[in-house]
Amino acid sequence: MTSILQCPVCRGPLLETPSGYQCAALHCFDAARQGYVNLVLAHNKHSKEPGDDPEMVISRRRFLELGYYNRISDGINEGVASVLAGLARDSECSVLDAGCGEGFYLARLKEAMAHGSGPQLVMEYHGVDVSKFAVRFATQRDRSMGWFVASINDLPYLDASLDIVLNVFSPANIPEFARILKRSGSLIFVSPGPKHLNGLREIIYPVTREHAPPAITEKAEALFAPATVARITYPLALESNQEIMDLLAMTPYYWNIDRATKGKVAALDRLELDVDVEIRVFKKKSGDEAGKPITR
Ligand SMILES: C[S@@+](CC[C@H](N)C(=O)[O-])C[C@H]1O[C@@H](n2cnc3c(N)ncnc32)[C@H](O)[C@@H]1O
Ligand SMILES: [Zn+2]
User: Could you tell me what percent of the chain has a pLDDT over 90?
Assistant: First the structure.
């Protein structure tokens, strides 16, 4: 496959070198020893260590490895399979997980694609997250994928270079996703459903309201057409304090709740809750449908 990466300095194509990546204007980005490449420019960093911190990444890895979210991952893989259905054997397909965290969903997607019943495609997998700790953990899963530290607000990909963008429980930048997707590309957007984490939320909030529907469909309207929505709901019982605290560290509640409420959660050894997740597939509109050209 030709390079799909874009130099964050001059926006030209980035080509792989023995030590990392380089563009024609000689901007160089060395690969870290762990196998990822940091493409965040120092002056674009809004905090010293943006994104999830090491403690959150370790909690996420420990929790996801228990398999409690495998059904969400299976649902995402089905969404990808539906997008790719009908492609001829050996077709090339590039997938980016934008806000990939420690790489759980992308690694399971690769596994499913390798063992699935669909046609064997030439897949290229990329994961991007602004947290270098998360990306460092992600490289441990599979060093053959492209792992990059970068922001979803300035993705290091050329215009119209990707077939699928995944965005799972992470910040989204719709115009940027539209820019990097090919004309017929798909966005797979995963967000909490109305009852997600009820059980935990009842402990945190005196009155539990349902999650509002995500604003994504409205926000994406100009650039994407909604294709499918799948909802995955099931009950979950966490059996130890460690599991409960790890789940808490994966949620925004971790930062938002006061010490007393955190203490209430920390006192639990068992917790029953709902998993409720929505997986939306959007098709990129062509320039004509979108009404205007897609620019950064
Ligand atoms: C709730 S976690 C989800 C991670 C992963 N998709 C998962 O579900 O396991 C949100 C992720 O978004 C990342 N993140 C936050 N702001 C970001 C940005 N501007 N660009 C890229 N990633 C960002 C965080 O570092 C974190 O890994
Ligand atoms: Zn350059």
Answer: 80
